[in-house]
What does this fold into?
Amino acid sequence: MKPADLRAMSADQLDDEFMKLKKERFNLRFQRATGQLENTSRVRAVRRDIARIKTIAAQKRAGAAPAAAGATETKAPRKRAARPKAKSK
It folds into this structure.
């Protein structure tokens, strides 16, 4: 699922989608354990979708602007501290 689609959803819709994906992850785990899982990449995709939903839901609760829209601010590059020279014998 794309982040733009998730950001367009309400908090209730995000919660519903989260519960649906948790059930799917549960079923995929059992399929894998019994050797019936055919599409192994789906486990990874579902896990990432769950994380994406949790992140966007937390942003909405905090009232923060989406990271993509607020990326106009740039940081100055940090300089590395000089290393002390090795002692010669």
Q: What stands out?
A: The radius of gyration is 21 Å. The mean pLDDT is 86.
